[in-house]
Each structure stands twice: as structure tokens, then as C-alpha cells.
């Protein structure tokens, strides 16, 4: 398109956008299973107000907008508390899991260079770790080395031990990973790293704002946070199971000094003045910080525990319903509400054909491979559609046509 010569009315602009938006996935109706984490209408209303209040400000300069700095510090501190970081831990907010991960990997690279003279830094992460780690390695000039998975779809410890060497800057584990929702053996992996003075990152982008509340519900949660001695950094996304609107994640360092020494960027050779920044972005939108702060305060611990209970109940119902179908089974043993399911061997069912039949019924289910499987990530709202989903799934397994293609789709 080209820029219209004359501007249109506000009504016309919005009508045109609404028309386009009608083609988008129906996340309000809980028919999507990734990208948006719907909690409920009250949460949405708070987020809308918080976003509106901070639509224009810029979080780049904390001196101009001290309220933003304060809110950021408090969001980071809440995450630190939930993940049992020590009092002197440090951290900052970023635009999302990917940026948090890139910053943690950058800090690990700098630390390895400063403390161990590592000049060809390696980033060692399980095959199931998010592509953000591959992206970080690519951007930061690190070698990305993948740890194969064991039969339970968790990082294989023997393989990890064999891959770690004197050029290893950082070892990674997920709690949980996206594809299978399984948690890696964090204490064992972190011990392998810390014995050699190597950084260890727990990617809790998914679990950081849900597992602490699963624990309060009395659900079994394996050690994954700063209570594990060798964990040096963590990522936790407020815009996933913290329910904030997009653009809100936290990266944390056990040692607050590392944030300053290895993550922060300070530049004083510019006529424009002293430039200080903690992550990739320069200008930073204020609304995600405000949204994150508002929702932590609106829900409080009790609200998060209640929503975690709804997610747990939805997960039980979905998983029981899937396993009750003789043709289907879960992949591995998922830790929380993120999981994949596939066709049982010998069932003659193609999971992608089932996915196509579900698409036709209006569900948006992500596909993945290794093995071919369908992927679900449940939010509180999914409790309201569990029965409809399972009834459509049973029908899709019985009456699906041929698969429209084996191409895996990830979102
Ligand atoms: C386990 C895990 N880590 C990192 C990320 C990256 O987060 P973002 O998409 O916010 O950059 C995701 C995204 O789904 C994830 O599931």
C-alpha cells in the first residue's frame, strides 16, 4: 500500500481494522492453544485500563518516568520472590521470553570470558529448548550445541556431561519446555555446570508464573528455581501465565552484580549524553510494564492460585479425555498445562489428519514433529470448553479424512 493522500475518519479507520480482525483466531472463545493466555473478562478489563494509562510513555529513561522504574523494580522483585532468588539478586523486565533469554546468554558469555577466559563460547541446551536459544547463539556469536533427549523427553544427563567442555559458557534447562511440557533434570544439569564454574540458566518462561502456584496447590513440582544451588539466571514471562498483555518478561540473576557487570550496556561517548540500557531495546513501551504490575496486584497470590487451580482442573480433564481414546496418548510426562499428544502405535491414525478435522470444527491446534503430534497449552478459560473439545476430538479421530499435509506448524 501507499500512504493515503487524505486521512480517513476515526470511525472508518477502526471499521476497516475490525473487518480485518474478523479473520483472526478466536482466542476469546478459548479455541486457540498458544500465543494468548486468556484468564477471564475481569482480568482483560484491568489490562485494558492499565495499557491505556501508559500508552505513550517511554521506559527508556527512568528519571523522566519514575513511576515506570518503580513498577519495573517491583515486578522484578515479585518474580524474584516467587522463584526464591536471594535478596541481592538482580534483574530487569524485557519485551518477552526471547529477549530475556538473549540477555541471559549474553551475560553468561561475558562472564565466561571474564572469569574463565572462554574465547569460543558454547551454549549447551536440550533439543527441546525454545528456538530463542538458537537465536541467541546466532546473534551473540556462540556455538549452539544440542543435548539429546532421553526416553522421557527430558535432557539426557550422560549426553550433557559429555558435551560440556572448557569452552562451555552456559548450560540450559527448561521448566517446562514448550514442545512436550516436560521439565529437564535441573538440579543435575545445574550441578554439572556449577562444578566447572559454568553458568546455568533455567528457562521458566512458561513455568515461572504457574509452577509457584501449582506448588501452593500441593501439586508435585520438581526443583527448578533459585533453590537449586547452581542456577545462575532464570527467565519468567509475565505475558504467559502471569496473564499480562504482550511485551512483559523478567530476566533474573542470582548474583545482582552480574546484571551490572555482564548484562548492562553503558555508553558515554555520544554527544547525546550518557546512554544506559539493560536489554536489547532502546525506547521501551511503558504499557507492558504497567500491565504486568497491574495484574500482579489485581490478582494477588490468591487470584493466581485460583487460576492455577482452574488450569490444573482443565489439564486433568483434557488429558483424561485424550487418554480415554484408545487411538491417542500423551507424549512423555508433562509437568503442567503444556503438552503434546499423538496417535498410539498401530492405531492407524495420523495425528495431523485429526488436527485437520479439528481445524474444520474451529479449533486452532499447533502441529509438531519428532514425533508427529498435536500441541496444547491450556489457560483458565479452557476449562469452559473441555467437554466440547473432547467430543469434537472423539469425532475427529473416528471420522477424519486424509491429512492435508505433514508440514509441522509452530506458532
Ligand atoms: C519455554 C519457552 N521459552 C521461551 C519462549 C519465548 O518467549 P517469547 O515468545 O515471549 O519470546 C517460549 C515461547 O513460547 C517458551 O515456550
Can you offer a commentary on this structure?
It is built from twelve helices and 13 strands. With 411 residues, it is of the alpha/beta class. The protein has two domains: 248 residues, Type I PLP-dependent aspartate aminotransferase-like (Major domain) (Aspartate Aminotransferase, domain 2); 94 residues, Aspartate Aminotransferase, domain 1. α4 crosses α5, α4 crosses α9 and α10 packs across α12. The chain is globular. The chain has a seven-stranded mixed β-sheet, sandwiched between helices. Bound molecules: pyridoxal-5'-phosphate. The site of pyridoxal-5'-phosphate has 13 residues, from α4.
**CATH H-tier superfamily of the largest domain:** Type I PLP-dependent aspartate aminotransferase-like (Major domain)
Number of strands: 13
CATH fold assignment of the largest domain: Aspartate Aminotransferase, domain 2
Q: Globular, elongated, flat, extended or rod-shaped: what is the shape? A: globular
Strand content: 5-15%
List the topology elements:
Blueprint lengths: L9 H12 L19 H13 L12 H17 L7 E5 L2 H20 L5 E5 L4 H10 L2 E5 L9 H7 L4 E7 L11 H9 L4 E5 L7 H6 L16 E5 L11 E5 L2 H8 L1 E3 L7 E3 L9 H38 L3 E3 L7 E6 L7 H10 L5 E3 L4 E5 L8 H14 L12
Parallel strand pairs: 2-3, 2-4, 4-5, 5-6
Antiparallel strand pairs: 1-7, 6-7, 8-9, 10-11, 11-13, 12-13
The structure holds pyridoxal-5'-phosphate.
Keywords for this structure?
7-stranded mixed sheet; Aspartate Aminotransferase, domain 1; alpha/beta; binds pyridoxal-5'-phosphate; 2 domains; Aspartate Aminotransferase, domain 2; 4-stranded antiparallel sheet; 40% helix; 15% strand; 411 residues
